Amino acid sequence: MLSAEILKVGSGDVGKKYPGGETAALELLHLRVQLEEKTFAKNEFMPNQTVPDLMGKPMSMSPYLRFGCISVHRMFWMIRDTYCKVNSAEVAPTYLTSQLIWREFFYTMSATNPMYNRMKGNPICLQIDWYDDDESYQKWVQGKTGFPWIDAIMIQLHKEGWIHQVCRHAVSSFLTRGDLWISWEKGFDTFEKHLLDADWSVCAGNWMWLSSSAFEKFLQCPNCFCPVRYGRRMDPSGEYIKSFLPVLKNMPLKYLFEPWKAPLKVQEEAKCIVGKDYPKPMVKHSDVSKRNKKHMNDVMQVFKDIVVNHCAPSSEQEVYDLTWLPEIDLERPTKCTADEFCTKVH
């Protein structure tokens, strides 16, 4: 268990301090419940979902759950009891605590699987032929991909040891089936090394799911997050990017998420020349996403008759909920996290 002393994560001026122990956990839990209560009163849930507060104080309970500072049982029932009190209901809907349920599910799936955090020898993981490209992997790790949204996330990971769930989804997709086509195992190793709330079962489970290696209705998400449009969606003011990438602090918002498109005069005025002060994009997303979609379709053909004994999200809507996207477009029920969807929300 974490001691009650103050733990400073990461290095540099941006680093935050995280108090450990049960007392701090209970204080944060009560703040969370108060926030949830106000949200329930408006007939909403997961208040930090549609527009995540990436710059605010971390409200996640995951580090405290990870180190046993508070029990998942206590958090589960406090959330559900609060909903019932606010709405005069006898039973709270399952989706309120779906993230906690998935957390426990990943534990059960890993309990008898010593190879759960690896592809080879893992009976529930698809054996995908990922690229072995250490140079590209290192650019991703160091936050030098040339995509500000992705790079800012990786910089925060190193400085603070924590990143929001939407940020984890973004960099996971980018490393694996979205852009670089590099194994989720490398991403898992990176998160396990740097995340304050790194949890072997949950971390590996999420990496397998987001890379389409397990835990979905066989490759139901052949599309991927766009590292430009998804960034605009989650950081509309650009404050998050500018905080962790000060080299871009003077870049106009119009070009902040894709600075390579800024005219040279604009780059000069912003004191940030792409290719000199900030890297050029390491890939062309529109091209590699199409290539990777073909790879996914090829994988589907190879493994289409293989039965994998695991569970998946119960519906498209649950996929949207778990990836923190707005309500599903019912007119396009075959889409998941496609680039086309992102054009509607930036």
Could you please describe the fold and organization of this structure?
The protein is an all-alpha fold and 346 residues long. It has a domain at 6-110: Serine Threonine Protein Phosphatase 5, Tetratricopeptide repeat (Alpha Horseshoe). The chain contains 16 helices and 2 strands. It has helices at residues 22-41, 62-66, 72-87, 98-110, 134-142, 148-160, 165-178, 184-194, 200-210, 229-234, 239-244, 253-256, 264-269, 285-303, 316-322, 339-342, and strands spanning 6-8, 17-19. A hairpin with an 8-residue loop joins strand 1 and strand 2. Residues 1-14 and 328-346 have low confidence and may be disordered.
Keywords, separated by commas or semicolons:
346 residues, mainly alpha, Serine Threonine Protein Phosphatase 5, Tetratricopeptide repeat, 2% strand, globular, disordered N terminus, disordered C terminus
